[in-house]
Each structure stands twice: as structure tokens, then as C-alpha cells.
Amino acid sequence: MSGSGGMDASSFQEEIARVFSPISVARSSPMLHDIWLRACALGPHADDRFEIIDASSGQRPIAAAAFARRAFTPNLYLVGAEVLWAQTDVHYEDEAAAAALADAVVAKGSPARFGHFPGESVFVAALEAASKGKGVVLSDALGGAPYIQFDDSWRDPEKKLKSRRRSDLRRCRKKADAIGAVTIDIIAPEPHEVDALIEEAITVEASGWKGRSKTALASDEKQLAF
Fold it and tell me: How many Å apart are CA 89 and CA 201, to the nearest integer?
């Protein structure tokens, strides 16, 4: 088990490939992909220093956690968790790997914050077990996030709405048709096309009530950088 501290964003990018890429994570999540960590490092955490705590089996990493450390504070923050408020987890292959990583985090001895974890994560319990007699783990259960379980009935999604809402949509569509032709595009862009499409989406979002209330992405520098 090892920890490396004080890296800048460039060094952290190299360590992502070395430490995180070989780990076959126990569950699938966009926040457990290398590209997520890279975007966090280049965006909202660009001015931070980075630290990786990992656990290995032989020479191969089996679990790891990426932390950011802000200037003039001893606290470690799980990369992306509190800046973006994404529901993320540390990287581990199985329960044994999670337990080994928890031991490494406790051995580090630094205050650490982890944001909010998915309910199925085993790391919180592993960290609580590893901390007995050595530290304090503060955690609280949060309400679940809403989700939709798709099935064939969703092929006609408007039927899922109440009649008043369907009427509202028809009225909005008539207003849109009066302004000009309405089209719906499903786009699978090439890499060189992505920047322009994202810029367009940011502009559209900021043109309405979100722009007026300053809650649009264009008004949030850290989210926008990510």
C-alpha cells in the first residue's frame, strides 16, 4: 500500500494511467472512468494538489482513491465529489480490495472528505471497520435519487404524463411551430465536433430562466470548466 502526495495536474494525469487503469472496478459508473478523473483535474481542481492512496496485490493496484488538497488545509477531498456534487466512489475490485484501501486511508492519518457515496458501495463499511480505535467516521444516510426503469411502455413516453401536462406540451409545440420549423436531432458527434455542440448547449441553457437566475452552467465556473 502506498500514498503519493503533492502532485500537480500534469503529474496526476500520468498517475491516473499507471494506478487506476489496471483496476477492474466492481461496478460500472461514469465517475469510475479515467476520463472523469482527467476532466476533474483539468477543470474544477486545476489549482489543487493531488494525492493518490492505493492498495496493491503484488505489483498490481487493486484499489485506489484520488484526492485533491486545497492550499493551506490538511484536508483531503475525493476528486470531483464535493466540487461537482457527483455521487461517486473510490476504485476497488472487490470487498477485500475495498478493505485494503480503507486500511491505507486510515494509515495515512489525514482528515478526508468523500462527498456522497452510492448505497451499494462497500467502502463506507470498510472504512468504519478500519477506523475502529484509530479515528472517527461520520456518515449519514441520504434519500435515494429518482430514476426511471425503462420498459417497452416507454416507447410512447407521452402516455406516462398526466392529461394536463400532455395538453401543455401540445400548446408549447404549437407556439414553437408558429415561430419556425421544429426538428429533433439525435447526434453522435466525432471528437472534433464536440466543443462546438457543447458551446451551443451552454448558450441555449443560459438563454432562458436558468440564465436569469444565474443557475445555468455558464454561471458556474467550476462546472463549466469540467
Answer: 28
Measured distance CA(6)–CA(137) in Å, rounded: 24
CA distances from 163 to 166, 168, 170 (A): 5, 9, 11
Query: Considering the entire predicted model, what is its pTM?
Result: 0.76
The pair phi, psi for residue 2, each rounded to 5°, is: -150, 160
DSSP codes, 108-127: H---EE-----TT-SHHHHH
CA 217 and chain centroid, separation: 16
For residue 21, give every residue at least 6 positions away whose Cβ sits within 8 Å of its Cβ, in sequence order, or none.
34
Per-residue model confidence as pLDDT tens digits over 45-72: 888 899 999 999 888 999 999 999 887 7
Average pLDDT, the chain: 89
Of the chain, the end-to-end C-alpha distance in Å amounts to 30
* Grid cell locating 50: 493531488
Question: Do the beta carbons of residue 53 and residue 98 sit within 8 Å?
Answer: no
- What is the CB-side half-sphere exposure of residue 48 using CA atoms within 13 A? 25
Q: Comparing C-alpha atoms, which of 96, 68, 86 is closest to residue 29?
A: 86
CB atoms within 10 A of CB 86: 17
